[in-house]
């Protein structure tokens, strides 16, 4: 579906965004991207934007309409824009990310702290005129934990005031879960305020393995940028790279062969099965079911063996390319995939026998960590998390791509919104992925596996967004080009950032042990958050 683009002046932004949500039902803030369009005497390809700003991608869950909103400010010394956190709760972390990297302060945001970088970091590294090496020598000291939040409020005369709030009082009992705790599924740190065993409040701390991938992309050619996507959500490597290739192909007007579309779809679904098996295994281990954990790892090896034979890799796959795939499928590929389908269907019954029906597992998962449908949409919590709360948010259905419009499959949606629903959605999705692969595997068309591309790829001036249904939600790519062989801006919509954004809301009142089950069923992968 074509997207309409609007430019809105900063002073009108909040009112217009509220109108778009209420009148045009734009209830899903799909993506929020910080931008530096250059100093005031420069202009972008559309001739309207300059300075520091934000690009918002909005969608209506009612009618599927999509709108892109752009806004900017020319003040580089004290850049300020209105916050939309009171309209979409999912804007809280992305706005903090934009402040962290561009220095834009959002008026009305309740917590203007850095999200990824150290609190003593000097400057804003995604600005085009920033020199991080000059301003930031290597620091070997421990970072001080900031216990105060900053809210910038607008006054009636158009000025702004700063209001500081203490995050945790002296009388609160605060414990760290992470960044080395195995059940945080990566180096993620939760600061948890407890009242006895009950969770009162959680402060999420990101950035422990932030690698600056979006900044690196600005000095890489388009084929070079592909290597970094496998290292975001490493359990959705195939899907991440698919999204980036799709976005670049869309920008260049390149249409890949039907053979490539089929291969990409099959590979994406194998990747989804791989990811969901690992989700099952790790959740079982988190809750103490070690036998089930071993069952999952046994079966995941089958998928990795299939990947390795065609791609040469098991985790970092490097398979999708601009215009096709790296190599044609291995002669054994079809045979091995067809053998895997009945094998996996049979073993899924073992999973349910050993874990799903277990009374301890049910008591740990049912009714725990409930996320309402309204909150799932407001936070932008897509994937199995959103569908477990009753939100039909599957990109494969909303915006079909590759060969998904040629296959029949059910979008698994439940209404309970609890840990058990999130678990069952993913278990049932394994069956649907097997069904999708079954429809395609004997019908892969003949044709080239790679379109002929120029040695140096230049993308025309303009901006594009493309998304795929990743293993844990919508993985989106926003690309802005100035016609060079390197991207002007390449931003990834992380699947995990909206998921950790929900943690403070759905964990309040739960037991400290429930945090482990809730985190396990949200199924975030930290390198995807810490880009």
Automatic annotation (TrEMBL):
Domain NADH:ubiquinone oxidoreductase 30kDa subunit: 7-134
Annotated protein name in UniProt: NADH-quinone oxidoreductase subunit C/D
Record keywords, A-Z: Cell inner membrane, Cell membrane, Cytoplasm, Membrane, Multifunctional enzyme, NAD, Oxidoreductase, Quinone, Translocase, Transport, Ubiquinone
Chain segments carrying region NADH dehydrogenase I subunit C: 1-147
Lipid bilayer topology: Peripheral membrane protein
MF (Gene Ontology): NAD binding; NADH dehydrogenase (quinone) (non-electrogenic) activity; NADH dehydrogenase (ubiquinone) activity; quinone binding
One of the record's GO cellular component terms: plasma membrane
Family assignment from sequence similarity: In the N-terminal section; belongs to the complex I 30 kDa subunit family.
Region described as NADH dehydrogenase I subunit D: spans on this chain: 171-531
Superkingdom to which the source organism belongs: Bacteria
Residue ranges of every copy of the NADH-quinone oxidoreductase subunit D domain listed in the record: 286-531
Pfam families to which the protein is assigned, alphabetical: Complex1_30kDa, Complex1_49kDa
Lineage of the organism: Bacteria, Pseudomonadati, Bacteroidota, Bacteroidia, Bacteroidales
Compartmental location: Cell inner membrane
Physiological role: NDH-1 shuttles electrons from NADH, via FMN and iron-sulfur (Fe-S) centers, to quinones in the respiratory chain. The immediate electron acceptor for the enzyme in this species is believed to be ubiquinone. Couples the redox reaction to proton translocation (for every two electrons transferred, four hydrogen ions are translocated across the cytoplasmic membrane), and thus conserves the redox energy in a proton gradient.
């Amino acid at each position: 579906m074509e997207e309409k683009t609007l430019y809105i002046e900063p002073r009108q932004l909040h009112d217009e965004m509220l109108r778009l949500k209420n009148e045009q039902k734009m209830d899903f803030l799909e993506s929020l991207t910080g931008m530096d369009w250059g100093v005031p005497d420069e202009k972008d390809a559309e001739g309207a934007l300059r300075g520091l700003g934000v690009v918002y991608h909005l969608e209506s869950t009612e009618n599927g309409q999509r709108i892109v909103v752009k806004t900017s400010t020319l003040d580089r010394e004290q850049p300020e824009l209105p916050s939309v956190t009171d309209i979409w709760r999912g804007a809280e972390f992305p706005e903090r990310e934009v402040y962290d990297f561009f220095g834009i302060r959002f008026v009305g945001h309740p917590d203007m702290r850095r999200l990824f970088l150290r609190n003593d970091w000097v400057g804003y590294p995604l600005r085009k005129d920033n020199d991080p090496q000059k301003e930031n020598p290597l620091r070997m000291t421990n970072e001080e934990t900031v216990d105060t939040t900053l809210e910038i409020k607008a006054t009636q005369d158009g000025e702004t005031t700063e209001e500081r709030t203490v995050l945790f009082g002296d009388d609160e009992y605060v414990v760290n879960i992470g960044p080395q705790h195995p059940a945080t599924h990566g180096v993620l740190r939760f600061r948890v305020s407890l009242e006895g065993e009950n969770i009162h409040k959680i402060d999420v701390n990101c950035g422990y393995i932030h690698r600056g991938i979006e900044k690196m992309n600005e000095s890489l050619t388009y084929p070079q940028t592909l290597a970094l996507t496998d290292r975001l959500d490493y359990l959705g490597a195939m899907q991440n790279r698919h999204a980036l290739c799709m976005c670049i192909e869309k920008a260049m007007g390149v249409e890949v062969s039907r053979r490539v579309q089929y291969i990409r779809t099959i590979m994406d679904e194998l990747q989804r099965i791989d990811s969901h098996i690992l989700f099952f295994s790790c959740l079982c281990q988190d809750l103490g079911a070690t036998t089930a954990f071993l069952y999952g790892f046994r079966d995941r090896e089958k998928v990795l063996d299939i990947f390795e034979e065609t791609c040469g890799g098991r985790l970092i796959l490097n398979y999708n390319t601009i215009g096709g795939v790296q190599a044609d499928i291995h002669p054994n590929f079809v045979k091995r995939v067809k053998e895997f389908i009945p094998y996996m269907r049979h073993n899924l019954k073992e999973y349910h026998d050993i874990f799903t029906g277990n009374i301890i597992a049910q008591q740990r998962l049912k009714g725990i960590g409930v996320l309402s449908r309204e909150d799932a949409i407001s936070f932008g919590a897509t994937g199995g998390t959103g569908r477990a709360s009753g939100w039909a948010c599957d990109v494969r259905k909303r915006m079909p791509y590759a060969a998904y419009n040629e296959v029949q499959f059910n979008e698994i949606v439940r209404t309970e919104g609890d840990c058990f629903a999130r678990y069952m959605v993913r278990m049932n999705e394994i069956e649907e992925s097997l069904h999708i692969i079954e429809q395609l595997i004997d019908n892969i068309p003949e044709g080239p596996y790679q379109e002929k591309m120029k040695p140096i790829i230049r993308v025309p001036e303009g901006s594009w967004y493309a998304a795929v249904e990743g293993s844990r939600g919508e993985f989106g790519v926003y690309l802005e080009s100035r016609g060079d062989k390197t991207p002007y801006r390449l931003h990834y919509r992380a699947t995990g950032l909206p998921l950790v954004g929900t943690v403070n809301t759905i964990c309040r009142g739960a037991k400290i042990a429930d945090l482990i089950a809730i985190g396990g069923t949200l199924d975030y992968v930290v390198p995807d958050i810490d880009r």
